[in-house]
Amino acid sequence: MTALSIMLVDDHPIVREGYRRLIERQPGHRVVAEAETAAEAYRLFKSATPDLTVMDLSLPGAGGLEAIRHIRQWDRTARILVFTMHQSAPFALKAFEAGASGYVTKTSPPEELIRAIDTVARGGRALSADIAADLAAERLTRRGGPLDELAPREAEILRMFASGQAAEEIAEALCLSLKTIQNYHSQIKAKLGARTDAHLVWLAIAEGLVLDRREP
C-alpha cells in the first residue's frame, strides 16, 4: 500500500513538529514537506507533489487563503485541509471557496484531525464539529454576513489590512502593484458599506478574520 504523502504549512516549527509526530504515528502516513509561508508552500507543493496539504490560515505575509488559491490554480486536483485557530464559519466558507476540501480547528481533538485527513485523502469533505455546528447555526439565523460579499482574495486582503499590514506590504506579499491594492481596498469598503478604515477593521474582527498572533 502506497503511503499517503502530506505537506504541513504552519509558521510555528514546534507546532509543526507536534503535528508531524501525530500524523506519522498513523500507518501509511508520511510528511514529505513543511512550509512556513504561502510562497514556500506553493514552491514546495510543486516540487514535492504531496497527496494532501494541511494548511494553516494565519501565515506571515500572504495567508493560507492565498496559498490555497495558488496551489489550486496550479493543480485543480490538489487536496487541501485547513487546520487553524480561526473558529469562524464565514472564514471557513471562504476557505472552501478558495479550494479547500476540509476545515478543522486547532481546538479539536487530535483524532478529529486524523479523521479529516483520511476523509479528504479519499476525496471527501471534512469539517470539525464546532465549525459544522457554527455553519448550521449561521444558515438558520441569518441570510448572510459581510464576508459573503467578498471573493477569497478580497477576504485575504481584508485580513492582512486588519492585521496591521500596510498597503505596500500587502502589495509585495501578493505580488501586486500598490495601485491594485488601493483599488481592492476601495472595493472592499464599498462592498461592506464600511464608512472608515476603523469600521473596516471592526468588521474583520467581528467576522473572525483577525487572531491574536500570540496564539499558536
Q: Return the CATH topology of the largest domain.
A: Rossmann fold
CATH-defined superfamily of the largest domain: Response regulator
Number of helices: 10
Q: At the first level of CATH, what is the class of the largest domain?
A: Alpha Beta
- What is the radius of gyration? 17 Å
Strand order of the largest sheet: 2-1-3-4-5-6
The total of beta strands comes to 6
Query: How far from one another are the termini?
Result: 34 Å
**Main pleated-sheet profile:** 6 strands, parallel
* Number of separate domains: 2
Q: Detail the poorly predicted runs.
A: 212-216
In words, what does this structure look like?
Mean pLDDT is 88; it is low at 212-216. Helix content is 52%, strand content 13%. Helix 5 links the parallel strand 5 (102-105) and strand 6. Strands 2-1-3-4-5-6 form a six-stranded parallel beta sheet, with helices on both faces. The protein is α/β, with parallel strands linked by helices and 216 residues long. The protein has helices spanning 13-24, 38-48, 64-74, 89-98, 110-121, 129-141, 152-162, 167-174, 178-192, 197-206; strands spanning 4-9, 29-35, 52-55, 80-84, 102-105, 126-127. Helix 7 (152-162) packs across helix 9 and helix 7 packs across helix 10. It has two domains: 4-140, 3-Layer(aba) Sandwich (Rossmann fold); 146-206, Arc Repressor Mutant, subunit A, CATH 1.10.10. It is built from ten helices and six strands; from the N terminus they run E-H-E-H-E-H-E-H-E-H-E-H-H-H-H-H. The protein starts with a strand and ends in a 10-residue tail after the last helix. It is globular, with a radius of gyration of 17 Å.
